[in-house]
Amino acid sequence: MISALLLLATAATFTEAQGGGSNAPSCASKLIPCTPPASCCDPIKEAVRTELPCLCNLYNTPGLLASFGINVTQAVALTTRCGISADTSSCSRGN
C-alpha cells in the first residue's frame, strides 16, 4: 500500500535480480524485474499494518513524498513486487 512510498528510496538498493530463461542472452537477465528481499518488504508490510494513518497523511499531502526524494510510481511498483496491495482507497481524504 502507501508504505512503499515511504521506503522506496532506501529499499531499491536491496533488490535481488532474478535469473533469465536458458535460451535468453546473458544480458536479458539484467532486464528482468527484481524481487525485493524480506529485509525490504517486511518493514513495508509492518508500516501498512501499524502506521496506515501516518502513511495516508503522507500520501494525501501533495509534494511531501517528492520532498523526501520518493518517486510515487516506483514506490507503488515496489509495493506490488512485495505482494502488498497498492490500493489507496483506504486513504481517501473523506475518511
UniProtKB/TrEMBL annotation:
Coiled-coil region(s): none
Chief localization: membrane
> Can you say where in the cell this protein is located?
Cell membrane
Query: Which first-to-last residue range defines the signal peptide?
Result: 1-17
Q: Does the keyword Disulfide bond apply?
A: yes
For this chain, the family text in UniProt reads:
Belongs to the plant LTP family.
Q: Which stretches are transmembrane?
A: none
Is the keyword Cell membrane assigned to this protein? yes
Cellular component terms, GO, for this chain's entry? Answer: plasma membrane; side of membrane
Tell me the protein's name. Answer: Bifunctional inhibitor/plant lipid transfer protein/seed storage helical domain-containing protein
Q: Which Gene3D superfamilies match?
A: Plant lipid-transfer and hydrophobic proteins (1.10.110.10)
Q: What is the membrane topology here?
A: Lipid-anchor; GPI-anchor
- Start and end residues of each Bifunctional inhibitor/plant lipid transfer protein/seed storage helical domain: 27-91
What are the UniProt keywords, alphabetically? Cell membrane, Disulfide bond, Glycoprotein, GPI-anchor, Lipoprotein, Membrane, Signal
Source species: Linum tenue
